[in-house]
Amino acid sequence: MKANEIMAALEAKHPGEDLFLQAAREVLETVEEEYNKHPEFEKAKIVERMVEPDRIFTFRVTWVDDKGEIQTNLGYRVQFNSAIGPYKGGLRFHKAVNLSMLKFLGFEQTFKNALTTLPMGGGKGGSDFDPVGKSNEEIMRFCQAFMLELWRNIGPDTDVPAGDVGVGGREIGFLYGMYKKLAREYNTGVLTGKGETWGGSILRPEATGFGALYFVNHVLETAGQKLAGKTVALSGFGNVAWGAAIKATELGAKVVAISGPDGVCHIKDGITKEMIDYMLVMRASNRNKVQDMADKFPAAATFTAGKKAWSIKCDIALPCAFQNELNEADAKELVANGTMCCCEVSNMGCTAEAIHYFQHAGILFAPGKAVNAGGVATSGLEMTQNAAHLAWSGEEVDAKLKWIMSSIHEQCVRYGKKADGTIDYVKGANVAGFMKVATAMLEQGTI
Length: 447
Known about the structure:
The protein has 17 helices and 12 strands. It is an alpha/beta fold.
């Protein structure tokens, strides 16, 4: 396999799908060496098959706003790969959602899910619906209209959506309510991220952030460092950043920055429990303004408009919001300010140029498909509880999450360890996930 030749063919076939092509290039370039050790993969054209999704559903979503006016959005579900289990991946509601974004996310999800040790394939979906500024009733009507188009193509052993950007517990509730009405069955395994009283798992809202900090802790310990006492900058203030802030604080680190589209809040003395709780209020408001934190806690937080979290001096940078949110200029600013570790908690949170800069500067770096896998891993645990018609305690779920994140780290080390003893986490994560999916595809024949 020659990565450049396959990428040239992909670029010709899918012009303009920049996010998907970026994700594909990163994986192909890092797995090329290992792939070429397996002529059976080449004969079966595993890569050529793996870079194309199994199927894509695109549909119109028509709903009525509070003024009685008809609105139309586009809905998507990308079922990327089911070699190791049913399609599994979130739904994203954001004005920037397009097919390239969802293909990249579904492609990444395939390898991320493989890393979790759980039997889950890769998928992703969503809509260009913008929840910012929408009322609760408008969000409910949109979710119901979205599920009206999607419900026949999902199921507990077919495709299990979850939440993502713009889709939290409220939206999952509205989506599931409509699914239950249409399917006429109470099958809680069809969606994850549900409320605890109707099939949801304890710790699921926190799981992505918790798992990320467990992984970061392993990265630091492997490098002879400790998380306790380190300063941390987070982007975003949704569920992911919220969970990361909780666990970072519990483990002795100090969160000194959170950011949003409008700017950054510098929290010099570290985020407090009251401020962490307020992050949920900010998310539920649909205002999408991090300035609200400084307005609520003016003595503790200082807001600067137009700046990113990466402008604040920190030991550890954790992108928690959106893809490509940290670019090369940001990476240079972080390194100049003494940052020693960056781990993607968002999917593909750093641009390729930023990753290369971190790696060349000797900064500890790990990719989202490994770092943020705790969210989908806990969704997988939720599926298991639903299938068994039981609910585990928070202690049981947390213990399983810790074990999974430790296992993911071990896989990254196995495939990413270099001659000098350092770890290339990008290569390690990509090769580990790829080998599991490729082997399953090979054993299942040409389909």
